[in-house]
Amino acid sequence: MIASKDDIKKLRDMTGCGIADCKKALEETNGDFNKAIEYLREKGLAKSVKKADREASEGRVFGLVENNCGILVEINCETDFVGNSKDFRDFGEKVTKILLKNKVKSNENIPSEVEGLRGETVLKLNENIKINRIKYIEGDNLHPIVTFIQMGKDGTIIKYKLDKEVNLDNSTKEILEDIAVTASFYKPSYKVYENIEKERLEKERELVMKELKNDPKFANKPDNVLSNIVEGKLRKNFQNECIMELPYYKDETKNIKTLISEVSKKIGANLDIEEFYFVKI
What we know:
Blueprint: H1 5-15, H2 19-28, H3 33-51, E1 58-66, E2 69-77, H4 80-83, H5 86-101, H6 112-125, E3 130-138, E4 145-150, E5 154-162, H7 170-186, H8 198-213, H9 223-237, E6 247-248, E7 251-255, H10 256-267, E8 271-280
Antiparallel strand pairs: 1-2, 2-3, 4-5, 5-8, 6-7
Helix pairs in contact: 1-2, 2-3, 5-6, 8-9
């Protein structure tokens, strides 16, 4: 029989074995899952099978940018000791490179080459290993991409946008990386204040207005003045949730919007942030 994609995925979830191994096991056992598991064990994959249901909550986040494309990959293991080992880090770097080269966007499309490496590493390190979240972003000369990894546990990826092609010198590239570092501290959900959901803003606006009206200092203020104060407080309250409003970590007198404006003038092209994502273990 020819194994279906859904059955292969199911056996892979049950055993942690590679896609190619699961496919062959199902075809050799005519789709019987119990026999397929026995087949995998008989073929020397017993250790991987036995470890597949063990919790893997430690690990590392890996990041890579090549040829205008970038990727973040979360790879989990069972213990922090293994996660910090050279073997695990070497495995993660190899896997990240393969996933980037193949433009893999989710762990549902892991190449067989990666599955083979994972199986070997499970046996070598004696722990369950899972490739979890993957964030792949494709860029080009107008869309430079930057990644930042903090202590192996915290990954940030940002895709910028230029309105014309320019050569970015090292100091400019460093600033783009600094923005990723700043974003990593705060992990904002929005690009700008105006992107925040109206319902959420309205709920917060009502709460702030009630606070002001209950404060004796604002008792005699007219509604239009109170409204202006409320809007100012709202922007301040949501400052750390909007990437453009974040204080630049090297100079907190500037926010990211100001910094990007300065970079735009320096390079002679309009720079903007198009996408940003975070992966944290």
